[in-house]
Amino acid sequence: MREERIQGASRDETDTPTATGADPAAGQVTADEAAATQPPVSTQEMLEEEPSALFTPKRIIQTLVAVVLLTVAIYVLVPKLFEIEDAIARMGSGEPLWIAIALAINVLAFASYVALFRGVVGEKVLHLTVAEAYQITMAGLAATRLFSAGGAGGILLTYWALRKAGMERRQSVCRMIAFLVLLYSVYMLALMVFGVLLRTGVLPGSAPLSVTVIPAGLAGAVVVIVLLIALLPEDFERRIERMTSGRFGRIAKRLATAPATFAQGTRTAIAFIRHPEQGGLAVAGALGFWGANIGVLWASFQAFDVAVPFGVIVMGFFVGMVANLFPLAPGGVGAVDAGMIGAFVIFGLPESEVFAAVLTYRVIAFWVPIPPGIVAFFQLRKTVQRWQGEGRDRLAPGAGRGEEPAPQSA
Questions:
Q1: 196-205 contact pairs (CB < 8 A, 24+)
Q2: How many whole angstroms separate alpha carbon 81 and alpha carbon 77?
Q3: How far is CA 34 from CA 15, 245, 379, 399, 408, in A?
Q4: What is the pLDDT of residues 165-187, one digit of tens each?
Q5: Is the pLDDT at 245 greater than 80, yes or no?
Q6: What is the rounded CA–CA span in Å between residue 110 and residue 126?
Q7: Which among 16, 36, 64, 113 has the fewest CB atoms less than 10 Å away?
């Protein structure tokens, strides 16, 4: 019975029969993870070097200067252009109690993020302690906020930490993809559900087409594409290799690696969702992270006595966060602020009040976690040294050469 339920996520009987029926949430190597193809060794060696360059004093100063300039542009110059100079002045009038509540909710957000990480990779795969999971996730968040749009800095640091903790290369990639799919599936589903409920009048609040139905439709398209990719056969790369030959065959197989690996990670994430008794911590962490972020934004509006319907807060938050993909802004600074402000203004909220509330939210959600994240990075370096002393970073026999490692027990 248990094996039949899990087979939807791992059925690679032709390649790794010992992994068929493995439960990703229970810490075993799934067939999907075992089927992943290795990137070139030179690339792997580069990725597994300590990403200490992310936190050099020069890099931090450069990033902070860019962040300050972007923040000034959004919150000083823009209000003057639109004749709402009182936006910054309103910051000092925020209710301290609500700001304290926002700070407390923010702690819950990052506790949820740690729970998501532990649920996917740390609790039953690597048996990480809560402290170790905290160090990896907080250091990754700091790297994401300071050094890259779209989370590339955090992904690099997390991959390095997982490898040093003893996770095999193929499984590391699969679990990281599963982590991101779980996290952003909540994002996409929220856009779809709340966009439709607002537009149809089920939820109260203004419902302009541009910030309800259109984002919901785009999110739905993304979900469909991801699910279609997940339908790629588990031996996709081998099929491509059999259908081609010579140099073209090698190139085709290499090009097939990305969609095949993404499909494998997506199926692992789906297995977590389908079996909440095993993946409940990860799913709860994803829901808690986004829910707490929205709670911080809600408390920020409350601090300035601005009543915003719940559906509007959810849609304004998620629509604005799309700007985090803007490649030239560290951590989406400036881009996310402008996107979120613009979304709420479209919903009909007063500009000056929106500026004050969004700036408060961004200070709490963006700036506050950076110092503990940097501290966590240096703590993580010491933890990695301890892991190396224990031999945890040594690869299992055959790992890294395309061979199937022995399944890990729960």
A1: 197/311, 198/311, 198/312, 198/315, 203/309, 203/310, 203/311, 204/309, 204/311, 205/308, 205/309, 205/310, 205/311, 205/312, 205/347
A2: 6
A3: 9, 24, 31, 10, 12
A4: 888 887 888 899 999 999 999 99
A5: no
A6: 20
A7: 64
